[in-house]
Amino acid sequence: MGEMITVEEAIRLLDRDTDWKRFQVDYPESSLGNFAIKKFSIPKMDQYRMELIIHEGMDRDPGFGTFSRLVETLSEPDGDGRLYRVWMSDTRAEIMEHSPLFNRLWWAQLDNGPGIRLLINGLGLGVAVHGALQHNNIEHIDVVESNDTIIDLVSPLITDTRVTIHRGDAYDMQWPKGTRWDFAWHDIWPTIDDDNLPGMRKLMAKYKRRVHWQDCWQRQGCLKMERLFRRAKAGKLGAQEMLDALEGRNIL
Fold it and tell me: Could you say which of 90, 107, 176, 204 is the most buried, measured as most Cβ atoms within 10 Å of its Cβ?
């Protein structure tokens, strides 16, 4: 077994890597309707940051510094009693959740082939779009978003002419015959939940013949959650394992 390190040592190790910061959107604060882009800060040795690393692992480290997030104001409290929902932020952990896409784009740069055509289902804060544009092989990005307020709030901040934002539903969007992309990234879910899996499978089936590669935000996390609940239902999950799962440990 490897030698244990303190959370302070883990933070020092994590903070050696700053490459993820170039994927941050750094948009100004603004609001429209019931949505807003808000700034927030996390100090280097923040207690919340340390607890996340301890309980959920180093992959869930949000990093430190100033961040942006897309927040929806709710008309009534959610199941946790909150009057708001955070749809996306540009913390380290959330940027790393787009690694399947960013890694695929990075490797494609080495081929020196034609420019990449990319489909992104779900605009949100625009982290996936902004991150994709950091790669030098992007020819065009089609983005599908169903929420008019999000489009009107976020799209003016994306000025690159290689990006086209379409108003429509990811499941029902119709494309001209022969439309294809190299890669597709589906990101229309606000939380990691095994209930997302049917929708993920539906989207991947819809675009199976239109892309060379596709994946969904946190699909592996949703699959792991599904396996945990199956084990629990079959009585194969111990009390401590169930507690860890409920508290967020060992899921992602």
Answer: 90
What percent of the chain is predicted at pLDDT more than 70? 93
Q: Can you tell me the distance from the alpha carbon of 72 to that of 85, in angstroms, rounded to the nearest whole number?
A: 5
- Which range is least confidently modeled, 21-35, 104-118, 166-180, 205-219? 104-118
What pLDDT digit, counting tens, does each position of 77-134 carry? 888 888 999 999 999 999 999 999 999 999 998 887 789 999 999 999 999 999 999 9
SS3 83: coil
- The pTM score is 0.90
DSSP 88-129: EE-SHHHHHTTHHHHHHHHHHHTTT-SPEEEEEE--TTSHHH
CB atoms under 10 Å from CB of 68, counted, come to 21
User: How far apart are the C-alpha atoms of 199 and 197, rounded to whole Å?
Assistant: 5
Q: Packing angle between helix 47-56 and helix 7-14, nearest 10 degrees?
A: 100
| C-alpha span between 122 and 138 (Å, rounded) | 18
Q: What is the pLDDT of residue 249?
A: 44
Q: Which domains does the chain have, with CATH numbers?
A: 7-93 (no CATH), 99-217 (3.40.50.150), 220-252 (no CATH)
Residues 218, 251 contacting (CB under 8 angstroms): no
User: CA nearest 139: which of 159, 161, 119, 116?
Assistant: 116
Q: What is the DSSP letter of 11?
A: H
Confidence check: pLDDT of 203 > 60: yes
- From residue 26, how far is each of 21, 58, 101, 133, 190 by CA, in Å? 10, 24, 20, 14, 20
